[in-house]
Amino acid sequence: MTGEVTREEFGRLPGGEAVELFTLRNAAGVEVRVAGFGGVVVSLRVPDRDGRPGDVVLGYDDLAGYVGDDAYLGALIGRYGNRIARGRFTLDGREYQLPVNNGPNHLHGGPRGFHKAVWRAEPLPSTEGAGVALAYTSPDGEEGYPGTLEVRVTYRLTEASELVVDYAATTDAPTHVNLTQHSYFNLTADPTRSVLEHEVELAADHLTPVDDTLIPTGEIAPVEGTPFDFRRPTPIGERVDAPHPQLAHAGGYDHNLVLRGEAGELKLAARVREPGSGRVLELYTTEPGVQFYSGNFLDGSIVGKGGARYGHRSGFCLEPQHFPDSPNRLAFPSTVLRPGERYASRSVYRFGVE
Question: CA 195 to CA 294: how far, in whole Å?
Answer without folding.
Answer: 8
